[in-house]
Amino acid sequence: MTPRTILCIRHGQSTANVAWENDAEDPLQIDARLTAKGEAQVRAARERLRHEPVELVITSPLTRALQTSTGIFADHPNRPPILVEPLHREFQENSGDVGRPASLLAREFPHLSLSHLPEVWWHAEGEPDHRGIHVEPPHRLQDRLARFRALLASRPERTIAVVGHATFFWHLTGEMLENCGVARLQLDAGSAARAG
Hints:
The chain has about 200 residues and is an alpha/beta fold.
């Protein structure tokens, strides 16, 4: 069987990324959006990825990932469908990793199918910390990683683009991606290995 290619693409620069670069404190920005630089990174990635034979895009429901997915793939020659999947949202440690209700996202992104999302699709269990953030336990991230790998293995497409986040991708690929950076994985018989 020919291995499948998974293109792991980190979102463009977000307002929270900029805030973290300037200060070690959580900027308390729920579901941070792309900056102007992030939007430019997305446009550059659109040109770099235009000739990849992408058949499906799987994106995190966090706004910066939705903006990146639609910005890169809306006019891709293959017109791949975009599947919004909360299994590969960012590991929730800070405010920028907290999502917004599915109904709000549906109003902002009416061209995406979001009806399958629960209203609260991010980690919201247990007691919040002093910032009001429900920090996700590491074992929950490991469970999501396993379920996301199983989802990828179940898909029939040969080339899948996955648009998401630095910490999640670090756990998935072992690589810390820059904004709009790409890691290429080969998926074969249910296991993923770094390509090249």
